[in-house]
């Protein structure tokens, strides 16, 4: 029996399957993972029981200085989007920022209320100059919004949302400090809210038509924020800091 020209011949190899392109959110989380061990270590030191009560009051004061800038930063970025309607990112990014502004509004007031419940003095806090470490962390975002592109702010937001408090942290802090539950509203609420906010941000990042340069700008902003928050927590852990 003779064989045809194809019968019995080895099958042609299947064409290679092209690897799936990584999403923007996955790329950013991979890059942020480089800074994660150092940030986690700083968080662990911040919440150690020894000396926690006075350190928690310093934490509230510092977080107030940081959080009070969140809404103004997003409002500025949204205005810049509105001023560049031809930008492919402007409409979608602007709508996200407008929504997120309302989700974050008055969270600085929560921190003042927590401070008062913990025995601190909100009036003295408001009268004091915010720490330079906070000004450096937030100031870079103002610069990039005004002098580069408002999309950079998404890196800052991503870092904050990704490092939200764990669900059980508020209860543990109340136990370890002896402070009333009313002193931990912000920690508790952000443990509940920020997971959903992080998912919304991932969806936005994957939807926006980011250029490689814009994705890099978001990553630089995110890593700058991770480094700044790490240094802030290290200073908070030091006696009398920041």
Question: In words, what does this structure look like?
Answer:
By secondary structure, this protein is mainly α. It contains twelve helices and no strands. It has helices at 24-32, 36-46, 52-67, 70-82, 90-104, 107-117, 122-127, 132-147, 153-162, 169-177, 185-207, 212-237. Helix 3 (52-67) runs antiparallel to helix 6 and helix 8 (132-147) packs antiparallel against helix 12. The model is unreliable at 1-19 (pLDDT under 50).
What would the keywords be for this entry?
single chain; globular; mainly alpha; disordered N terminus; 68% helix
Principal-axis shape: globular
Mind summarizing the main beta sheet?
A: none
Round the Cα radius of gyration to an integer and report it: 23 Å
Distance between the termini: 89 Å
List the helices and strands and how they pair.
Layout: H1 24-32, H2 36-46, H3 52-67, H4 70-82, H5 90-104, H6 107-117, H7 122-127, H8 132-147, H9 153-162, H10 169-177, H11 185-207, H12 212-237
Structure summarized in a few sentences:
The protein has 242 residues and is mainly α. The protein is built from twelve helices and no strands. The chain is globular.
